Amino acid sequence: MDNPINSTWTHTSPPTFAGPGETTLRTALGNDGYATLRRHRRLTDTALGPLAELLWTTAQEANRLHAELRYYAQNTCDHLRHVPAHTNHIGATPLGFLQHTSRAIDLNSTRYAQQMNQLNVVIEAYKLALLTA
């Protein structure tokens, strides 16, 4: 049996789901740039600190909105699964089941698109600030 102290086997954590905000950051900045962003978030003596924090919170908000959209999509699917059970009732229509979630999905999808656009703008501002720093 191998000695666990001298073993070359390393434990790797299972991959976690990265939301679209974090994925966009990693794609735009690369792994090294992403690590640099994390360091810049702690800076308080330059403008890079607040800008890095803005970039981070913008990405986290995009992740939150994406998760909310996924919730509403699942909720809509659940409602649709129950439609056949209620179609034998007089006056029951499938549209009644979707009225609540359709408005929420419309608002959230618009807000999500705005957030992703804002994230791209902040990424460009951060990259420009890195060039001038």
Architecture overview:
- The chain is an all-alpha fold.
- The protein is 74% helix and 0% strand.
- The protein has 3 helices and no strands.
- Helix 1 (20-40) packs antiparallel against helix 2 and helix 1 (20-40) runs parallel beside helix 3.
- It is elongated and about 70 Å long.
- It starts with 19 loop residues before the first helix and ends with a helix.
- The model is unreliable at 1-14 (pLDDT under 50).
Summarize the structure.
With 133 residues, this protein is an all-alpha fold.
SSE arrangement:
Layout: H1 20-40, H2 48-86, H3 94-132
Helix pairs in contact: 1-2, 1-3, 2-3
| Largest sheet features | none
Helix residue percentage:
over 70%
Low-confidence parts: 1-14
* Number of DSSP E strands: 0
What overall geometry do the principal axes of the alpha carbons give? elongated
The average pLDDT value, as a whole number, equals 81
**Structure class:** mainly alpha
Determine the strand fraction and express it as a percent band: under 5%
- Topology pattern, helix = H, strand = E: HHH
Total helical segments: 3
Task: Describe this protein with a few key phrases.
3 helices, mainly alpha
